[in-house]
Design a protein that fits this description.
Residues 44-231 form the Pyruvate/ketoisovalerate oxidoreductase catalytic domain. This is 2-oxoacid:acceptor oxidoreductase subunit alpha. Keywords: Oxidoreductase. The protein is of the alpha/beta class. 34% of the residues lie in helices and 19% in strands. It contains 20 helices and 25 strands. α3 (137-142) links the parallel β7 (127-131) and β8. The two termini are 24 Å apart.
Length: 643
Amino acid sequence: MTSQVSSPAEHADGAVVGEQRKPAGAKDVRRLDRVIIRFAGDSGDGMQLTGDRFTSETASFGNDLSTLPNFPAEIRAPAGTLPGVSSFQLHFADHDILTPGDAPNVLVAMNPAALKANIGDVPRGAEIIVNTDEFTKRAMSKVGYAASPLEDGSLDGYSVHPVPLTTMTVEALKEFSLSRKEAERSKNMFALGLLSWMYHRPTEGTEKFLQTKFARKPDIAAANIAAFRAGWNFGETTEDFAVSYEVAPAAHTFPTGTYRNISGNLALSYGLIAASRQADLPLYLGSYPITPASDILHELSKHKNFGVRTFQAEDEIAGIGAALGAAFGGSLGVTTTSGPGVALKSETVGLAVSLELPLLVIDIQRGGPSTGLPTKTEQADLLQAMYGRNGEAPVPVVAPRTPADCFDAAIEAARIALMYRTPVLLLSDGYLANGSEPWRIPDTDELPDLRVQFAQGPNHTLDDGTEVFWPYKRDPQTLARPWAIPGTPGLEHRIGGIEKQDGSGNISYDPANHDFMVRTRQAKIDGIDVPDIEVDDPSGEATTLVLGWGSTYGPITAAVRRLRTAGENIAQAHLRHLNPFPRNLGTVLKRYDKVVIPEMNLGQLATLIRAKYLVDAHSYNQVNGMPFKAEQLATALKEAIDG
């Protein structure tokens, strides 16, 4: 569940978690089951770094966690303005959680813009830590504050901690030969130190990180560490923070194994490398940088030791062209992009359909149309993935559900591409790409064997007894054609986008042959072996099914848990395979009186479900660039049950 605690010492249901008092003279320590913290400031204030470091230490401590980075698209948005606010939200707990949380229990606001942009999400009674040094008349007027919110009573319903972060950071660093401007840049480390004390986070990892990050600038490394320690010491000594909090490790949440914190894009990168190793094929990435997919290019470029080759192309079309060429040459070809790039790549995806070569097209969806909202999330490329090509050009579509699941989704996409000789579209999104959660590192013997058999010689005998190689002679089970590596003696064959003759692969304009080839390519996709969809319906008495896909999994599951806790019967199912659909999906849908489909679009999956299964699916849609909130979904689903 992701319902919020009503105060720092209470469960969502109001039950006190427990309080442990230290010996006389020491501060009180209260135990919590969960906390949601949001760091917010200018895009140049280092909020993403601060949040990332707090997350890393929380992961090493053993809490379950989920994060939501949120930042402007501009490299350096206007300082002190609402559009320039960057934030990082972290939800961590002593038990299984599914979302970054609906609303923060603690807001760290580095300036007036950060406070104004985020105060609407903060529930009454929550703690707000504000950097008072930035609340100047000019800074406040820039975001529309006629009077200081720290003095006009507008924050009376919150537990406000005014802290002169900038002044204290500069004072802590006065022994270093830094200018005031340089010293001020470390104020995010002061804030991180304070929050690390407040929630008993480990500190060794952050200090090692800073030493490594600024290894070539030891003075800067030392200054940041000093600021970090000063923040910790301030929390320990000030009377304004009379209580610190403990959130125990999630000892019973995870199966036994080795875990690390991982983002969706990093998990996807590792999944691609694992797939190439399991297939015993070199991995080739042809890509053009685009938010929020660029991290995959950055990460894969670091792994040449695993046979990974990365090519930063001059544009989207060149990127996929190079990847398809690599697939023709016997590599696991991959191209990464976001929605606008998929549009540009569509012709080459169609060529890959015609050539029937394995190719992974990874779309990290973002808000659209056109350039849209580069740093915000959406899942509105589903119909583009399904139909965004000329002619009948069917392509399998796979979607991960969580950041860690991006690893498994990448391997599954590779399995389909290699076994069925087809391009595959993988639909992640900005929420998954940048968000993070604990991930159990799998043993290699848990991964599937993806090795393929390349064509070795002739595979067809002509009427006159001549043995020849037919590039479009198909496997009777998968309908996949042979994969012939260029340069293999006797396997010369023609490729191109013009229609092929069945079997021989020669150019053909014959109407009957085109009809046969179109239907065969469709039958190949329809025949892909995908697991049945699993339904979570504990009571077996639910009449309403909530069906989701992609990153809505966390909010949907959290909402369903809330409703079940309140005594409601509701079933849940989540799709990984969107083309083809699982074979039992139609049967599952007909079991329920109502089917509700929440999506971060205007009803694209609902459109497909209605068309294919003639089910009166109800859409619940959001397109504001942010993921669903659990409470919001729970309310909508309760209305659907009662309606």
